[in-house]
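Predicting holo structure, copper (II) ion bound.
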Amino acid sequence: MNKPNFSRPISRRNFLKLAGGAALTAAGAGLLPQYLRKVLLPVGVAEAALGDPPNLYFAGTDGWMYLPPNPPISFFHPDNYAPAPFTTYIFGFRNITGMNSAQIANQKMKAQHNAPLFWVDQYDPNANGGAGNEFRLQLTNLGLQMRPDLTDSHTVHWHGFRNVIPFFDGEPTGSVSVPVGRNFTYIYRPRDPGTYMYHCHVEDVEHVHMGMTGLVFVRPLQNGNTALYPSGKFAYNDNDGSTGYDREFAMFLSEVWAESHWCDAHIQLPEWSDYHADFSLLNGRVYPDTLAPNGSIDPFNPVRDANGDLIATPGYEHLQYQPLSALVTCQEGERVLLRFANLGFREASMTLAGIQMRVVGRDATLMRGRDGTDTSYETDTILIGAGESFDTIFTAPPYQGPGPYDTYVLYNRRYSQVDNLADADGFAGQRTEIHVYPSGALQAQQYPNDWGGA
Ligand SMILES: [Cu+2]
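Done. Tokens:
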């Protein structure tokens, strides 16, 4: 934290950075002069509130993940530093909520990709007896084990979140960021339901591409209204039940350019204008790993070992740090919400073969004109640019059998992104499956991307 220097005038930007730095710890907030505290902390947030336990606690660090090693890409992939079964160096986040300090320290070099999926409720000023339901996300920075020379800070920036003040932007020249060993608590009052993505905004071409990216969504106040749709679950405040759904699945698109990951591990500088993705990933995996089971993905009920480490599903040890499955399981007749977000650098063209999807939201906005006109539409393909999100709902077709379920394919129809430069037996990319079961075969979903006991 820079020492305040009041002997010369400070610009508004430095003023905010200074105050943000002071807020880096709960104790720091208490050091703010009264007038600064009033101006700079969100309304109603006293230092006592900053000391409340956060809803989630994340750490930024580096680590290893797995991508199919065959065919190898020059000497960049698989990385010869990578401990088996892993292949690829990453930066990323981990959910350390509820860990003790020893467990937290153990998570250095244990980043995951994509970053933990999480969700928050739309802000309701009447919640908690009128106290509201602010959401607190605390962030710490464990440093980069492979690159102690890089003392980069990290931030959490909700891309598309309509709260454009430096506290939430995370871009380091105009905002607050979290240096190694420090803590910062982001406090949100989300007012616009829908699907967003989040990423670290420091050195963002590098930190985003290296894996500090994930999906976050905001649940609408309309949730719980079983008169509009029996499940009481909605994507938006639609007032008519049109965005009601029975199951929901996050579909997060990202990319890996193997050379840049190798360079970061080997203390080399990648030339970012040479960018070309070798791998296109869906929920941090490539097909057929996209179909493998979830690890512990409910951020509010995390399951870990005694050291705090993620637990690999037996038989899928290579996916220990890629816990989010992309397999969709549902029963015939159910409405299924797919929440797409793309934080690769290229456009994707996601096709659901044989089932029409209805696009009900784009970029966290209900598809409805200002005069109320319904602008939702049906399609089997959505074209998602980098930084865009889509909410689509499909109705699962009748189960036909034989077999326990019917299979439909969800894939990126851009050949280079579903194929990932592979030969016939090589690694495949952004492709997964929809499994449609007969009625009564599955349990209700416990959390997004849950298979319902399939
Ligand atoms: Cu970062």
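DSSP finds ten helices and 20 strands in the chain.
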